[in-house]
Amino acid sequence: MSDPPVAGALRARLEAREHDTLAPWAARASESRGRLRPEAEDPIRPAFQRDRDRIVHSKAFRRLKHKTQVFLAPTGDHYRTRLTHTLEVSQIARTIAKVLRLNEELTEAIALGHDLGHTPFGHAGERVLRGLAPGGFNHYEQSLRIVDVLERGGRGLNLSWEVRDGIAKHSKGKRGAPVGAAPERRAATLEGQVARVADIIAYVNHDIDDAMRAGILQATSLPAEAVEVLGGSSSERIGRMVTDVVEQSVRRPEAPEIGMSGEVLEATLTLREFLFAAVYENDAATAEFGKVAGILESLWSRVRSEPARFLDRATLERDGLDVASRDFLAGMTDRLRSCSSPARGASGAAPAWYSFWFARGVSGCQGKVAPGRVGRCSSTCARCAGGRTGSTVRSRAACFRPARLTTTRSPGRCGWPSRYTATATATGCAAGSARRWSSPARGAWRVSICRSRSTSTSCICRSGRTPARANSRSGTVT
């Protein structure tokens, strides 16, 4: 194995390669402005490569796989999540950076870290948390807080200044320009500017694709003037946008700046405006926002009522209750698992009181319990909003839409710890998706009623410590 001096020479060789091959205006690792806290250089990796690796190995990056991009709890496997969006941004950004001879590793690090601070439930979650948290909330500020403070047990990732600058200035909002922003609002490096424009290229196209998959949009409903300029498919549009960014940027060798032609920029902004009207803020999205608001408001109240149980002690002591609560909710995934909580066990399971299944159509409880009171239904009787047949929930089971299932107390059938037996109404055996139940006393576990919908006489119950059968004609699990 090489000793440190030899390994250090390997890093110096890579840094020298950057000087030889990159454009004069590209960022170079050896010329970085440094980190928040000085630390020894890696013996092999240049600074930006090290930053990229730290982001990829962070917990916040892994949590993106369970955070919504646009559609909450989609039924298919091909909808984007916040993680797949991030990977698409990274791919587009590296393509542009490579052609322009910019630093690909810096570009990739910014792209991979730009959305680490996103809330659960996409932009709807961000809007709710912005209203709940004193001082508001912005996901790009939270992304910076994650890499500066929250990761690695409160030590942060200690990234280089250039990566942090790109993360902090990637966001455009509803009306911000992807290129040509004022100097104080755009990244200081061209690599950061590339990540900013790659973000809108990625989400404008994949959100259209997902909306078509969901049946919300048709190809014929897209703005004709934008389609005429950019193309009729995602592949065509991405190719047109990327090519335009490269062509417009290389035309400015004296004062390089990432740009787009007026025609392509106008078409891109037209598509973004169309998406806000037709997808992000339409009636269906508004209904989803109501569900998200109820969930997050309940969680906000609960964690603040028992901070010692749910919130990080060091953050409470250093930054106070408001910041600790904001960190907790922003770090959660759509499955309502948080990045850190004293209440979690070694398995990382979430506290039982907010464990529930975010099924399609769920909107908390109606009747005796206010909407959004997750897992805290009335001990007498509460009516689930999502149940198409008006199912009722007794005892303390969480209210959700469980494919027309009604719960009743009974002796321990299937060996279920809380001794619930499920009775299906009118539909026979339920489809195989897992149903999550919550018991404050015994923790959370999954209950999958049957392997698949069946018209035969019976199907096997997958959960429980002892096998059980469901008679699909009578619809009763026994």
Describe this structure in words.
43% of the residues lie in helices and 7% in strands. It is mostly helical. The strands form 4 sheets. The protein has a 3-stranded antiparallel beta sheet, with no helix packed on it. It starts with a helix and ends with a strand.
| Order of secondary-structure elements | HHHHHHHHHHHHHHHHEEEEEEEEEE
What are the low-pLDDT stretches, counting only 5+ consecutive residues below 50? 340-478
How many strands? Answer: 10
The CATH topology assignment of the largest domain is: Hypothetical protein af1432
* CATH level 1 name of the largest domain: Mainly Alpha
Main sheet summary: 3 strands, antiparallel
Tell me what the CATH architecture of the largest domain is. Orthogonal Bundle
CA-to-CA gap between the ends? 63 Å
Q: Give me the Rg, rounded.
A: 25 Å
Beta-strand percentage range:
5-15%
Q: Approximately how much helix is present in the residues?
A: 40-55%
List the helices and strands and how they pair.
Layout: H1 4-21, H2 47-56, H3 59-63, H4 82-99, H5 104-113, H6 122-132, H7 139-154, H8 161-168, H9 190-213, H10 224-230, H11 234-250, H12 262-280, H13 283-305, H14 307-310, H15 313-319, H16 321-330, E1 365-366, E2 382-384, E3 392-393, E4 405-409, E5 420-424, E6 435-439, E7 443-447, E8 458-460, E9 469-471, E10 476-477
Antiparallel strand pairs: 1-2, 2-3, 4-5, 6-7, 8-9, 9-10
Helix pairs in contact: 2-5, 4-5, 4-9, 4-11, 5-8, 5-9, 6-13, 8-9, 9-11, 9-12, 10-12, 13-16, 15-16
